[in-house]
Fold this sequence. Notes:
With 239 residues, this protein is α/β, with parallel strands linked by helices. The protein contains nine helices and ten strands. Strands 7-6-5-8-9-10 form a six-stranded parallel β-sheet, sandwiched between helices. Helix 1 (9-17) runs parallel beside helix 3 (55-71). The longest helix is centred in the N-terminal third of the chain and has 17 residues, at 55-71.
Amino acid sequence: VYAFKNAALEILTWANDRGLVTVLEQPNVYQPVMHRLLSRERQEHSTWEESRDNDEHRQEEADRQVAEWEVADLILCPSEFVQDGIRQAGGPVERTAVVPYGVDFSPRSEPRLSPDRGLNVLTVGTVGLRKGAPYLLDAARRSEATFRAVGTVSVSEEARIRLEDHVELTGQVPRSEVEEHYEWADVFLLPSICEGSATVVYEAMAKALPVICTPNTGSIVRDGVEGFIVPIRNSDAIA
C-alpha cells in the first residue's frame, strides 16, 4: 500500500494490521525543518512577504509526519535533503530510500550561447522567499546577464518593484509556454531555501542547461558536472 505524507497515517495503519507492505512518499522536507528555514527568511526579509505561519496546526502536522514514519515499512525521499530532514528529527533513516523524480521533456531545439548576444539566466517557479528571490535579485544586480523569472509573483509590491529593476517577471504562464522560456535560456538558476526535489531543475537539465542551485533544492545536479551547487543565502557564490 502506497500513500503520501499527511494523508497516510490511517491508510498505512490499516494496511499494517493486515500484514501488507507499506510505502510512504515524503515529497518534501520535514515540516519543522522547513519552518525553521523559512522563519529566518521572513525575519531577514520582513518586507518581502506576509507571514504564512499557521501556529495552530504546525505541531499537529509535525507529529503526524513522525507517526507516519513509524508505521511505514519504506519511506521514499526524492532527495538527500529530504532524507536528511528525517535524520535531523531522529526518524528511521534506515527505512528510507532516495528515489529522484523525473520528467518527460523534449530536447533542446536551438544551440545555446550565441556569441552575438549576452547571457540569459532563467528561474522558473513561484517568486518568493522559499525559492530564494532576494538572492536572485542580489545576483542580478551585480551581473550584466539578462535575468527572467517565470511563475507566480508572491512577494509584496515593494519587493516586486525592486525585482523588476533587474529581473523580467513574466508572472504565471501556461504550461504549454514554459518550454519556450527554457529554449531562451543559457543558464538555469534556482537558489531555493527549501524544496523536496524541484521538478523545474529536471526540466532544465532535460533542456541541456547548466544549473546553479542550492543543496536545499534537492536536485541531482553534481557540482562542476551538470552545473554548480552554491550555499543557500549566498548571492556572491551565485554571481
